[in-house]
Amino acid sequence: MGSDLVDKSGLKSANKNDIFIVSGNAKHLKDISQALISFYVVHAFQDAGKLSEALHHSHPAAIILDEELSPHGGLTVLQQLRRTESFSLIPVVFTAHQGNLEQIGASNALPLVRTLVKPYRFSALLKAISDQVNAHVEAQWKMMKEPQRAALENTLSSFNSVADLIAEGKELPYADIQQSCEPLVAAVQSGNFKALLQGVRGHDNYSYVHSLRVATFLSLFGDHLGVKGNDMSILATGGVLHDVGKMMIPHQVLNKPGKLEPDELVVMRSHVTQTIDFLENTPGLPRGVTIIAGQHHEKLDGTGYPYGLKGKELNELARMAAIIDVFSALTDRRCYKDPMSPVQAMEIMEKMGPGHLDQHFLLSFKELLLDATSESDIH
Ligand SMILES: [Fe+2]
Ligand SMILES: [Fe+2]
Q1: Which CATH entry fits the domain spanning 3-136: 3.40.50.20, 3.40.50.2300, 3.40.910.10, 3.90.1150.10?
Q2: Which residue of 73, 225, 281, 332 has the smallest Cβ count within 10 Å?
Q3: Ligand 1 centroid distance, CA of 332 (Å)
Q4: How far apart are the CA of 126 and the centre of ligand 1, in A?
Q5: How much distance in Å is there from the Cα of 328 to the middle of ligand 2?
Q6: What is the pLDDT of residues 49-65, one digit of tens each?
């Protein structure tokens, strides 16, 4: 094993979901690779030479490096990586046995390294990778101009605070969420939305990335249609909050690569009612935010969910939200699929027909995309 997992043709076009795993222990390498395969595009290497060769072709989102590695051990490779300028910013999760205190101490002292002591739980490994990848992406936001930097930092912090509020059963402080979205609206209004989309590329919290993208595209669409003031704020906050109920959906259903079974589909679809259950306890929540969150999966012919609303029962906001949610989902990057290009996404959405999406708004959104983006800009 090891090199047989390396897809050489794919390496040059490595995307942000690539993880390199390096270990001289074939069983460890195989176990970790198989466990991670549904979360990342995994490339496994059994020796340092193969890793080095691969790194010259592309950089992964993170490297999982084991202490056990020929000829000089994983720690030596780790130190080399940190000394080499072009590799020094690749996040590393270093794995070592509990007894190897010297190795653990040395690896912990290096920048952008998270050390996991063996044996560890698989969830601890997943969290360590995710934290490492995100710390790297978020560190790059510090170099962005305002208001783009604040747009990303604020919305992430709001999104994470919602996770805590849900866990603690507390209500949503809407004014804080609204305030956190002000830079996002400002970034869109000043024509800088592309920086937001580029900024979340490679971030490992898919729900956050999707919500930020929906908030950005909804605000962009609103701006294009002449929406102003408080209504822009509703589009942005509605986008950030539209799927928060997904935080209550089990990970294996939410991140399942293939088609969902009928019972899983029921669970998945319940994210809308879960979102509404959470939002309805929010004092001062604008009705528009509830519409975006509650009706973004409705279809004009009445076959959508959860209410099966039809035709005129769906107002402009619900129609816009449905278009933006489908477009974002198709062009989002997932661990199990490459993002679709905007052109491909529009073709699919046009084929969905008038029973699903509002054709007038769809045409308007298409015009906006043609004006504002090129293919490489938006995922
Ligand atoms: Fe949704
Ligand atoms: Fe969504």
Answers
A1: 3.40.50.2300
A2: 281
A3: 13
A4: 24
A5: 8
A6: 999 999 999 899 999 99
